[in-house]
Amino acid sequence: MSGHGFLLANYVPGGSPVHRSPLWLKFLLVLACGMASFLIADWAVSACVLVLLCGVFLLSGAGAARLVRAVRPVLPVLAAIGLFQWWQLGGPTAARIVLNVLVCVVAASILTATTPVQELLDGVASLARPFRRFGADPERFALTIAIMLRSIPFVAGAYADVRNSARARGLERNPRALVLPVFITSVAFARQTGEALAARGLGDAEDQGS
Question: Which of 37, 89, 169, 179 can bridge 93 by disulfide, Cβ–Cβ 3.0-4.6 Å?
């Protein structure tokens, strides 16, 4: 299967000020952008924030092409949302909604493009550690995030490969030719992941021993 990305930019090694920023500050940036998407009421403000974040992404040295690849998968969905909101609520509201979603995507891409995956997972585990008193397992939570980060690009790539294969055979409009191979591939991937976790003593074995 060919490699495929999914929405967010992959990590790019570097020594930019963005790379050297503490992880908590990057987490705070993503959280602030998520909250701002509910609070900003003017599309022009959203546009200014988006331009600023794009500048921060480029400052990191990750490159404009990587930013485009991170944003491109969500553009068709945003176009449909924008048209519907423009029809229902008008142009300014539609523009604000679309721009706010892009703000969140770019902010998250800054985090993933300038933070190694292991450091990101360690940070997630640290954030979840205060919830240990309520029965949460920070390490298992970080493991879940890691599996998600690996699984989503795999499934997206499997769908793209199956679609290209179906198109080559003239079956791109046949749902069975698209859905069934992706389903089988995804189930096989899930089984392999489960077996790998079990081999490392993770997963259901702990629950059965309790």
Answer: 89
